[in-house]
Fold these 4 entries.
Entry 1:
Amino acid sequence: MLYRETGQFKTSYSADQAIFPIFQDRMFILGWLIVAFIAVPLMASEYWFQIILIPFLVFSLATLGLNILVGYCGQISLGTGGFMAVGAFSAYKLATNVPELNIIFVILISGLITALVGILFGLPSLRIKGFYLAVATLAAQFFLIWMFNKFGWFVNYSPSGSIAIPPMEIFGVMVTSAKADPVARYYLALGFTVVLALLAKNLVRGPTGRAWMAIRDMDIAAEIIGIKPLATKLKAFAVSSFFIGVAGALYFSAWSGTAESDAFDINLSFNILFMVIIGGLGSVVGSFMGAAFIVLLPIFLTNLFVGELGFSALTAKHLEITIFGALIIFFLAVEPHGLARMWQVTKEKLRIWPFPH
Amino acid sequence: MEMLNAVFVAPFVDMFTYPAFFVEVLLGGLTAGVMYSLVALGFVLIFKASGVFNFAQGVLALFAALTLVGLMTGTIPFSQNSMSALALPIWLAVIATGGVMVGLAYAIERVVLRPLVNQEEIIMFMSTIGLAFVLEGVGDMMWGSDVKALDVGIPSGSFEVNGVLVQVFDLWAAGIAAVMVAFLAVFFQKTKIGRALRAVADDHQAALSVGIPLKTIWVAVWSVAGLVALVAGIMWGSKSGVQFSLSLIALKALPVLILGGFTSIPGAIIGGLIIGVGEKVAEVYWGPLVNGAIENWFAYVLALLFLMFRPQGLFGEKIIERI
């Protein structure tokens, strides 16, 4: 009744090729966009922007990037934190050394630099796969963080080793640094996330995405039908790293404002991998769900334990880790294909509702 | 020119001018290598028998060490208080901790592995990361999260041979590791359950069809990995205290596995020693050229380069792929 494609006839090629061919899906996306662009900025408080909304957007973008690599192309990566650091530090170097450059270009160029680094560390993927590749990407993670930590050039020789974004403007509105309005920073992150998410959605249903999925499902077979493994895998690394680099640049410029290389450590990589797995491998909408889940869960648990039940902060932290781990195991056991799969099942059910037989 | 000299000549000149120091660096590397090997060994055991890449191995070692310290000091779980009346003697505490690890293996099989049978590798891998979180949280809640000293009576001190300082503790660690590897070799080759383990490792379905109970085997192999983790935890804990960083050795064990091959027990040992020596030597002789602390990533880059030429590792089985 509510969600049904009956009667929606496609009468033109452009209708047939639409990103969202079903009317209800279009309305659903439109609804979310209206909420995100209009309703949220009117209602949310500064706490909401800083603690939930902006990190959610940043992590969604990073999750999307990793999902392209892991979920669509099947190459496991544990180097996400390192690549986000590349994005953040590139943004810092660009913003401080080329101050006349608009922040939008700063973020895009940071993404491109990260894409180059991603290609470099993706090169071994032609010869190795699976967990061997995961260890190779760990090399990227540790090497990159060490590099940003040890060489003063990356932090403009600041003695503390931390970087801070200078105030930057778009059309006269300040969008970065602590002086900027949270709403402006939110719009900056939201704009990038929405545009790149649509780009990703479009990319994965086209020839590029299909080549990735062919490589993921069986690389030798894909090679036999004429898909070039090296080019396809490197493309996945490049696109994925671009997304992650942009996410890193936004993490630094739109969200935190300051950063140290240690913020991008291995735990961040694991967290983003969790978002991918819990959201659903190989799903764009799942990336958003996974990011929302992992961003909200610790906040919820902390509020519950410290705020409601009055545990000490330390006990609450340990309990939080335990529950977090247990939930991951539970999720994997109950629905290994993640929240996206649950959403899919719901849609299937809605389709035949209220006559399920 | 100066650059080339600093990279390719000066370190080697140093090594030959002060051989005693070089040998000390080598020994330090070997000791660290033994620790890596112990953790890698647990990985290999589980990977061979169940194809699960067990990220929680390092946390298992931490958990074992925490439990051991807790039992030895008579700590009451979840209370942060200790009663000296409850403190167990060392031998009893070790045995009790071994029992806890076996129980843990049983629980893991029941709660984590069984619901996830036949899932993809990455799902299993992620579930062991979840397991690592749970064990870390529970371990800290039960026994407290402060750094603890662990003394199980392994002699310490040092003596000098030809100007080289040798730590007695390191010799003991190497000796215990060797005994354990020998014990494992006998266990795998000669006992009934060891043969069953190898059968499962070769082919799950064939093993099932000749009547080997897979569930029991998984409990057995996780128990053995838990006991190996206990030994690793004792060694590492008595050397540098029982603390969270113990679980981070798990990550260092990954390049060790790459070098040695995921399925080879000798590979884990030799890979561990190579990584341990390699990173110490690189840190001491080449580290200063690039501001130091290259220990953090050297092992991974070494493994990465190695993979380019020999993807299956030193002793791993050759990967043959068919459609």
Entry 2:
Amino acid sequence: MRVLIIEDGSEYIETMTRFLGEGIDWERAGSGPAGLERLARGGVDAVFLDMRFDRAPEGELLGDPVEVADRFNGDRVQARRFLEDHQGTYILAALREAGITLPVVLSYDFGNEPRRWARLSERFGPAAYLPDNASPADVRRALGSSVGD
Amino acid sequence: MPSLAFAAPEDALSPAVRQFYVAAVEAEASGDSATAEGGYRAVLRADDAFVPARLGLARTLVDAQRPEDALTVLGGAPFDADAVQARGRLLLALERWEGAYAAFLRLGRLSPESEGAYLLQAEALSHTDPSEAHERAEAWLGHPNSRLDAHAARVLVAVADALRAEDAESEEPASDRARLLLESVEEKAGSLDGHELLVDRLERYRVEERAQLLARGGSEALAADVRGQLDRARLAFAAGRVEEAHRALAPLVRAHPRSAELLATWADVQREQGQLDEAERALRVAAALEPLEAAHPHALGLLLLDGYGGKHAADAEVELARAARLRPGSAQIWVALADARWAAGRLDEAAAAYERARSLGQGDWSLRAEQRSAARPDRALAAEAPALEARESGLPLGYWVARVYAADGDIERALAELEALEGPAGPEIDELAGSLALTAGDLDRAELLYERALLSRPDEPRLLAALGDVLASQGRDAQATALLERAAKLPGGAAARLPLARRAFEGWKLWDAEAHLDLFFAGETGGPAYSEALVLRERVGDRQRLVWTSGVVGAGLLLLLPLVAVASRRRGQSVEQLIEASPGSFAELAPVLSALRHEVLKHNTSLLEPVADALERGDDELVAWANERLFGERGVVARFFEQCERLRAVGRRHGEALNLSHVDPLFGPALVEVHRLGGLRKDLERMRPGAAAALREIAQVLNRDTYAGLGRLLALGQRVAIHDGLVASAWDDVQAEPARRDAPPVPLVLDIDTGLFVRGDHTDLHDVLVNLFRNALQAGATRLAVSTEVQEDWVTGLESIVIRVADDAEGRVTTEQIRGRFIERGLGLVVDLVHRFGGSVSVADHPGYAKAIAVRLPRAEDIGETA
């Protein structure tokens, strides 16, 4: 199984390759656009997607900062933070809009937001989520189940 | 002597004269001055205008130590640029500056298109009139043909040195024109000849400038009684009694305006009271008093950044960049600097600073981003640090230069600077030299120097503690302890409590260690030892619990334990109790709880179980990697303790003592497990598979119970229910205001959905509604309506609740005015409060009314709800 990790840092790729190297080939993309470009080439079975992208350069954040700033009284700083904090969902939406139907596992705890997760998974599925404290074994299980293993 | 070489157009001479000239040149080259002189003179007799011979004759005369004759010879060609230049250079070599300058002025007139004359004029003037030399140097720099070479670099450095000397003697405020001159050259010089000289000199200037600031602005040391008052004020502030701290500090600040320590505490209090301008002023003075202390520009930068909601990010960046230069190893400062750059929209540079923080091994940079305040009060003035009158320290500049080098970690240069000092060494110099010797590992010399300093100042706690450190390093424990205890009892000696606490801890004198640490924290508010003290306190608590629960001590001893000590273990509150008692604390607790959950536990404790597996199968590479991640300087153990201390600090600010270890049902077990985890370090280093079971047990608590509990705590304080009662309460408050007593009744129509929660604070939401109602009524509204609507963001799935307060008053406020803050105060407060919760305020149409103010707030899900 080949899994593309989309994260702005390198924590996940480092951890996964160390702890889950067997049976899974890991690749990393550092931003939404980079992830879309990689997925367009094919050969990936699933996507492991981080939620917060606060280290990504501004130009690589998906979402319209002007439109988002409208929700914060025009405050671009808050808009940028919003885009960073929820970038995972923007990437997920972009994948689906691009016709990419691969299973996606989001690294974010929706445990306290069940209604939100229900909306997102229905809208952008197939998708699952794992909270931040998920162990590598949890990740393996979630990915395996997402691709039907 | 300067070079007078010149390529001669010999063909201009007749054949016979040319023979004389060639012979003279050869004689000069072979060192036969007499023959050379004769030959050149013969040529000149035949052709007086043949300048190469004149130059050659002058060279020969200079070599023969007859410079006056050479000057006469060169003066015979006053309209030839080469001869004039040679004469000027010779005059320079003879230190006849005015004559040289006159010659170079003439050169400038003879060769108006040449840039060289400016540089030579500057060289001559640097000895007589530095300001004029500066102008000439600038003229040379501005010339399109100017090129830096070794000579030009030497001249420019000479001019800059002369400017600094002139500035030093001037009674005017010191200028930085010398440094600016060299900096402007440095930018252009690149790697050209002479660049190294410029760089070296610039570095020296910068060091000297910092040293001069240090010498000029030294902070006032407080007397024992004043320090005692300051300490009491600090304790009051830490306990949340801000007014009391203010009353205690105000007279102290007036009486001791040069104490940086006082001013820094005063700034904390002022900031807490919302007096941002005064806080800023105090920090600027503190920074001027202690220009080498990074804490002041750091605090000032944070104030400018957070206190004004990013409006003064550029100013904040200047201060934070200064702090980062002073303490480049502090990830906390780099994070703040990154935030400032980020807020200023300079994202690439922000990313670089974040990366720098990351490279220092600290992972809580994203927490700082979460803490960016949304409050945006106006800043009344761009406060400048007031000019401080110079205070005569009696110490030579070299002492201060050495301190600058020492602060930069350049011990070798600092020692060299001290060794170069003339005259007898005073206690300050001995103390500095002692600390440098200690750093360099020369314990005997450090001991000697500290003892000599103590002869002059036997009651200086810093010196006593330093000597105690030296003796402890030599294994002379009893003497070291005696010195530390003596230091700790003196005013200002709280820092000595830490090594005493460490010793008590090592000797299992846990109550002594605890007492020492309490006194340490009462007297110290930061500094490099602070983090160590935090960790030590946790370790002391850990051992105390062990003593209490394991039965290592006998029942008799238990009975002897003072009951008050037992009771104190149970005193204090949990985090949840703090939130209940002081809901306003949640805004400060949330980022810390979030950091614990996302930065400390995430990517770390989730690995404990696989690390246990690796330990059992002997995967030493993976275990070593995990070891660093768990136990490194910024590993999970250290960061957990650090965040716990931040929680306690929040409690103190709200007048409550958090007892995380003994009362808090979430943190008590978590701390036990973090301590256990810390105790496994050696087991992991030695690859002991027996530790695997413990790792799995710890993972159960930290990665599951603690993680989930933190989530519950975070959810606890974030939700406020929107309901009729909330709106009615705000409406009633406005109706009860004196201005409304005689006013005709105004109907309020409510259309509020049930089961709605927003993220925010109940009191703040109440204030939002009160202000909106009051505004509408003051504008002449005769009827109002409040309605709610839920909106959803398609991409993120997040919901917002829009609360519309509609009225029929004619008003001209627009959304654009709200964004531009061209609004009256009440609405401004609404915008600030809503902004803090990540919401927005806008103007909307509302059927049947003139307008509605629409407040959009993020919706919080009821955890009990189902999808």
Entry 3:
Amino acid sequence: MVRDMTPDLSVTLGGGLTIKNPVMTASGTFGYGLEFAPFYDISRLGCLIVKGLSREPVLGNPPQRIFETASGMLNAIGLQNIGVERFVRDVVPRLEDAGATFAANIYGKTPEDYEAVAERVSEVSSLAAIEVNASCPNVKEGGIAFGSSPDGIARLVERVRRKTGKPLWVKLSPNVTDVGSIAKAAEDAGADAVTLINTLIGMAVDHRTRRPVLANVTGGLSGPAIKPVALRMVWDVCRKVKIPVIGIGGIMNAEDALQFLLVGASAVQIGTANFSNPRAAVEVVEGIESFLREEKIASVADYRGTLRLS
Amino acid sequence: MGFRHGTIVRNEGHGTIFYRMEVALPEPVQFVPGQFAMLSGWPGNDPLLPRPFAIYRAASAGGRHSVEFVYKVVGRGTALLSGLHGGDPVSVTLPLGRGFDLSGEGRTWWLVGGGVGFSTVFPAADSLGHRKGGFELFLGGRTRDQLPPKDWTPGGHTAGRLHLCTDDGTAGFHGTVVDAIRERMKGMGVSDLARVTILACGPRPMLKGLAELAAGAGVAMQASLENHMACGFGVCWGCVAAIRDGEATAYRRVCKEGPVFNAMEVVW
């Protein structure tokens, strides 16, 4: 009986939301989701999170926008997106047809912008959750202004909270002194979960041309290079808040994902790996399931947060 | 479009700076000339990202399918690829992007490849070779060693059809392909020029020079652009180019809306 069991991959994320498995795809690395339909059935994901949505379409930063680094990459896309209206009108029906569980990542220049986008996407009954981007390092007003202090995050989350009944996640920046206190402030302000980490601010320069490589000069570092930093921060925050923590940062495969669950994350997001291997996220779902089966662990919940410290 | 695991059939330098890799795949590949693939073939996460290459050829025979790429070693990724051997595994995502529009009837086609850019225009030559009127080919390199090998050149070296250009004059026309095309245009009437479509791939200064020349002469031009890419299929938004959008400028993805753009719309 136990030998043939199918592990229960479902996870509960607060705000009344349970998803079928703990594997999500990170905003900004998954387009609007449909782009991955040629590679696998996107309804197999626990949740996909679409590219950050703003009130109006955004042009984004000039090229060059990306640069590969040792086991990682820098990006400074600048939140280019189609705007919330086109998302609701053109993309949502197709995500629904695909049977996908999806969440909207939102951002704005002002708290009013965040409120407006949150209200609009809340009208989408099939939307699983809202993820507030309070941490984009590449746009001056891309949320980092709010996300770098406990007071700032509390003010923003309180206002968005009043505008939506959807589960509300807050995506946090690692470019702060104490991510724990910011996560706690988000929790106290009504967040249902926190997502961390967003990218680490980095830079690349050309020693011959003496110019920065990215037009934006600085960019966000992602990929396996940042995984140890992310893992430490997730572990830290898991001990400081009671709400679920969604772990992200350099996860390339199921082993990486399991490590985030082990330190206490309730779910994980696959980001840069989607670029290296378009099937990365679904392979993580499969890999977590086979690990639990092999280890005869009944559920993700049984494995989560079981790090042995002594 | 799909993500496939393949096996290298052969991967050889050809006494030139160019390598040619053939990869066996489980399924046949159909592509439009100018489309590309994302290719990686190394273990681990460094380099992290696959590399974009034009699809050079695709073949299917006796239930075996393969695809070919031509490349030049320009950095770590291509250096690693050049060290792979027959039997080694690679992964490819293909076919990607929007290729050349070869639909015009009665056009005069001028195909222009600068450096390794020939690998993008040769497939177009293969398609156009069957048409009445065919094409003319302009190939540029810094020196004769940087021109594609003769036996790769579509249509062989038919007189009047092939224009080899070298910056140092060691082979063919002494000058750039832009200079050669300026020469070619001399004496052509407005109506003849209006029938010409240039299909070009090469270094950006070459493309820019050609686009200015074409615009001045009333010649149509499709340019295949390059850029750093992370995903190759439109989700990272990292590879954009500035493209005219009415009065405004938009950032279009080289991997998705391109790599082939109307050269008159590119903000050079």
Entry 4:
Amino acid sequence: MSSTTQKIAKDKKGWFVDMMTSTIGRKVLMALTGIFLCLFLIIHLIGNLQLLKNDGGTAFNEYAHFMGSNPLIQTVSILNFTFIILHIVYSIILTRMNMQARPRKYAYSKPAANSNWRSRKMMALGSIILIFLIVHLVYFWGKMKLTHYGLVEEGVLVKKFGTTDQLHLYDLVNAAFSDIIMVVLYVVSMIALAFHLSHGFQSAFQTFGLNHVKYTPLIKTVGYAFAILIPLGYALIPIIMFATK
Amino acid sequence: MNLTLQIWRQNKPDINNNGNYQNGEGKMTEYKVADISPDMSFLEMLDELNEDLLKKGDDPVAFDHDCREGICGMCSLYINGQPHGPESGTTACQLHMRSFKDGDTIYIEPWRAKAFPVVKDLVVNRSSFDRIMQAGGYVSVNTGVTVDANEIPVAKTIADEAFNMAACIGCGACVAACKNASAMLFVSAKVSQLSLLPQGKAERKKRVERMVAQMDEEGFGACTNTGACSAECPKDIPLSSIARMNREYFEAKITSNNV
């Protein structure tokens, strides 16, 4: 037998590193960061719903101001960015590894016979979400931060808020969502998110080892409900704002 | 029945002279078989083809087989895009030609995974599974007199669950079906079977740590929970066994004395 195929696994870098770099450790990291991002989706949606209040953006601006200035939220947001990056980096590492595990593809394969497409296309769905995320961050978060630190002059966006000048984020959002291209990008991305979540949510629990006759059906139902309701909420906001502009 | 077969032919193995993996040269080749009885098993159909090839002086198609009754785990054919063919809960040898129609074209390929290098045609080397078993897939039994069979009480439900996991024949269909060529269903079945029973408790933590480490060493992919493995498993090993292995693995890693 050959040297490469007869390698015997040995402890390499200590138990913790070994655990976290094993195939199981890596997918647990994907699942953990994924579940945290699910929580983030809920919080972010609650905030976004303020956009639909018919008050010229006061509630949304107050919310944006709170999110941008509260130290606890700021700390969590650093964690959130870290988890998003970890989720992306690990997905690339794992996908590369998984592709290397099959150096030659089948000439004829029928994957639909044994699994559903969304579970197999998590990387593609995730890539759509990543493109969305970049546009989203550049368009809103980036502009907001640059203005916040006085790096750009956005006279229109800075309005009186209480006693201090604050960013008028509502106007920025309103302007963005009067553009049909932006609305379409949002809706398409949220459809991708829905499919990503429909597999990802329940898959995370399976990865944690939480598979049980009593609870798995419930986890699946909650997962599907989550995958439909959250992206639907996000997608409705630009649609409603576009329709009522 | 008259059939057209598209079969993977490969003369040189995927392991090169230096012992490294390298895709061996091969290609899908067309063959025709005539007068196939619908009552034949799939492997008997291949036997017919090989007889024809031998008569013509051609090289017969190499494929793995042994018991031909679905318990040895030797047959390993990727038939029409699915491991062990279109029927569920069966091995290739239990597949009958009545599952196909006259005039069909059938694609036959070997398992495709880096950890299962092709030896020739449809035969792959599955020693990576053996090495995973050697890493921890056993129980310690003290020598001496034979112990009474019922000395250690085992609950019926536990015994049944362990038996369901032990049904795994190690054929590798899970690896073949998985888009990541992951061996988690196989390893989890073996981990489960032994750790569920009291006899397997002695090595419980060390076992899962070493078997998973060996699985990774062999170059199998990671699980993305598509469920393809379980759907194609001829012994219907459920996906919950992978969840059990994940639990066992983390529990062992965190609590064992192996630093």
